[in-house]
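New to this. Look over this protein:
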Amino acid sequence: MDRLLEIILHTDDALLALVANNVYYAYVLLFFIIMLETGLIVFPFLPGDGLLFSAGVVAASTNLNIWILLVILIIAAIIGNLLNFITGKYLGEKLQRSENYFLKKYLLKHLPKAQKFYDKHGGRAIIVGRFFPIIRTYIPFLAGMVYMERRLFLKNTILGAILWISLFLLTGFFVGEITWVKNNYGLIFLSLIIITTLPLVFSLLLKKKSNSN
């Protein structure tokens, strides 16, 4: 758990230290972080986009193999979505009816946003949702709740995982050796977090404005 918190708070330094200590442990930990971010609705705060970019940057200058990493993280993203889909299918309604304060206050409050996103994009929401923090944690859960056809879900899950992982991981890898990137990594990491959360922030502001009117 301490290692996980360190990666969340100090992603680049923590990854470099982890790889230097045990590269195989790095593969395993990165696998589980990506899987859990979309696999369980209690982990929407895990650093998906930034972590993928960081892993790519680290792979460019260490013995962390980018192609092995690409494959295992795509698998992790697929498994995560499938776990969340199954949870939504079999436990979704029960969880929604739960009176648990933590579930209602901090987790299930995001479900209406995911519902609106799903209604707008349909089956493509599984793919598009990969690029939106928090939303990507809830879309598979919601797809299970509404009994989305399994083949359609699996096809979109695989495609979405390939696109999402490849974009951020390979971008980090190919620009990771650029001097400016190395010197401004903290700024880039923060910018990624801001850029990927802007659509969600704007939607919340618009909803608040419409409610006030």
